[in-house]
Amino acid sequence: MSHNTFGHLFRVTTWGESHGRALGCVVDGCPPGLKLDEAYVQAFLDKRKPGTSRFVTQRKEPDQVKILSGVFEDDRTDGQVTTGTPISMMIENVDQRSKDYSEIRDRYRPGHADYAYDQKYGVRDYRGGGRSSARETAARVAAGAVARRVLGEDVLIRGAVVQIGPHAIDRDAWDWDETAKNPFWCPDAAAAARWEDFLDETRKAGSSAGAVIEVQASGVPAGWGAPVYGKLDAELAGAMMSINAAKGVEIGAGFAAAAFSGEQNADEMRMGNEGVRFLSNNNGGVAGGISTGQDVVVRIAIKPTSSILTATQSVTRTGEEVDVRTKGRHDPCVGIRGVPVAEAMLACVLADAKLRHRGQVG
Fold first, then answer.
1. What does 237-295 look like in DSSP terms, one character per residue?
2. pLDDT at 154
3. How far, in Å, CA of 289 to CA of 312, rounded?
4. Residue 1 has pLDDT above 80, yes or no
C-alpha cells in the first residue's frame, strides 16, 4: 500500500490498523531545538480519544503516546527538545473486539471501504476496517502536535462543529469558550442542547448523522503558500479530504461565494494602524494560493457514520445478495471526534508551508 506520507518539507507518515497491536507516525523535517515531550502530545490526543461521552464510540482506548525517537534532553536544554531527526511516535491498541466483526468477514458494508479495498488489493482487514478505520487519525493528531511546535505560539488553531445533521449553529451566538463546555465542540450553547436530543434519537434508532467541522488558524502571516501548483488552499483541501468520512471542503465563503456578486465577494481593503486592513474574509485567508494575513478558515463536510445497526442492502465476496447490520461500538456522529483531527491537518499543512516559505525567501 502506497501513499501513507504527506507533506513536502514537514513530512508525516502514518502506520497501523484499527485492530493491530499499535499505530503511529513518523514525522520528518521538524527543525531541532523545539520543546516536545509526551505530555504535550498527549493533551491533543485526549481531545480525540474515544469513550468520552455517550455521543461517541464506547471503545476504551487511553491513546497513550510514546515518543520513540527524535527528542533529547541534556544539561543545555530545559526538558526534551527535538533533534532534527525523524520523530517516531507509537500508540498501542488495548481495547479491540475483533469478534464484533466476524459476521461481516465476507460481507461488504455499504458506505465503507470494504468493497473498494477488496477490489484493489484482493485482501482486506475486516476488523474495524483495518487501515481504512478512523482509528488511523490518532496518529495524525500526534503529528499535529509536533506541527504546532513548528508554528509557534503566534499561530492559534481552533476547531468547532457547526452543524450536525440538518441542525446548524447560530453564527451570531459563536463563543469559542463554549466548545470546551459541551461534548460536541459546539460554539453555540443552544445548538448543543438541541444536538443532544437529536443524536440520542439517532443512536436509539440504530442510525447515524453527518456533520460540518470548521477550523480556523489565526496569526498566519501573509506570504505562505505558492502560486499555481503549490496553492495553500489546494494543500488544505487535499489534507482535509484525506480525513476519513470527509466528502466536501470549503475555504472561506466556499460554495456560498457562487451566489455572491463581485462586489459582495471582494475582500475590500483599507489602511489601518498596523497596515492593510480587510473588510471581509470571503477568501478564507488565502488569495492566489498565498496567505493574506487574515484568519485561515476551512470547513469540512463529514458524512454519516457508515457502521450502523439498521440493516442495509449489500453483497458478499462471492456475489450473494444480503442485508448487513454492523455490530460493535461506533460513533453516531463521527464528525464530533473529527475536530482535533481537522485541527491537526491544518497545523501540518501550515507547518509545511512555513518551512517551504522560509526555504524559498529566507
1. HHHHHTSTTEEEEEETTGGGGGGS-HHHH---EEEETTEEEES--TTTTEETTEE-SSP
2. 97
3. 42
4. no
